Amino acid sequence: MKKFLERFKLIDVNSSDSKLNSYLNNEIDSDLEKFGAVLIRNTPINNYADLENYGKIFIKKPYLAYVGGVVPRKNYSKYVFNSTELNGLFKIKLHNELAYQENAPDRIAFFCEQQPLIGGETPIAHEKDITGHFSNSLKNFLEEKKIVYIRRYFSKEKLNSVQRLFSPFFLTWQDAFSCEKKDLAELKCKDLNLKFSWIDTADTLEVRSEFPIFVNHEILNKKVFFNQIFTQNHNRYSLGSLVYYTYKVLGINSDNAPRNTVVDGQEIEKKDLYSLYAAYNNAERSFKWKNQDLLILDNKQVLHARNTFVGKRKICVMMGNN
Ligand SMILES: [Fe+2]
What we know:
Layout: H1 2-7, E1 9-12, H2 17-26, H3 28-35, E2 37-41, H4 48-58, E3 61-62, E4 81-82, E5 92-95, E6 107-114, E7 118-119, E8 124-126, H5 127-131, H6 136-144, E9 146-153, H7 161-165, H8 173-176, H9 182-191, E10 195-199, E11 204-212, E12 214-217, E13 222-225, H10 236-239, H11 241-249, E14 259-263, H12 270-283, E15 294-298, E16 302-306, E17 309-310, E18 314-321
Parallel strand pairs: 1-2
Antiparallel strand pairs: 2-15, 3-18, 4-18, 5-16, 6-15, 6-18, 7-17, 8-16, 9-11, 9-14, 10-11, 12-13
Residues 95, 97, 304 line the site of fe (ii) ion.
């Protein structure tokens, strides 16, 4: 927690509706600019409906649906989703939300309705703590380049028994695009400016998107490290040894993996992946979730992750633009 407080802001609103309202109406914008993340403790929020009401104060254009994601989700209400349903055995590494699509949100809010028994933190990292750990050569290399995100969504009907067992890793196009018809999925890809093709006897939808690795932060008017170059890359550091070697046994490599990233059409070198891994680990800061906590992030300055956990965990999410 000490490391968290050295970089980010914590306030306590003592269950007061007026304090929370006042903070969200008057101070959150400047604090997000300055710190990139604010943790608000003891909010009067009790459920997703409350989150939706308060969320609309600081997210003026909330997102309706989570289309084209890489992990399964469901909606609690019009604007509130559950956090990823990926099994608590697996850690999700640091990433900027939806950085691989044009509709990446400016802001994201996490509300803790059920704190996990053990683990399950949402670690965060400021992009300047990550890039500050890069060697000059790595920074120069990344600054000039564009990244291509490749995602492969399998067909619900064609998932084999092993893939079903690991279903969160093999998101189907039907789930990712919330539809059952291929032409509808194609339309949604077009809406998001995604290049798409049907591969493997037309059962798998392969989607590609290209973005710079550093983007302009409109409010700060400076370039920020904003991407999922590491999290979506098919490598042992980001997947973890268990998943990586399970994939290997299943014959899954970077050419047919559910996700991968390439830079200038080339696989990212192992030494660069390790440098990214070390920089992310160095920048990561976390706190223990408590019920009623609200964590608000500037998605373009701050990356988030999810630690492994045991027991029930309910974190509601709202995201969008201001
Ligand atoms: Fe996320």
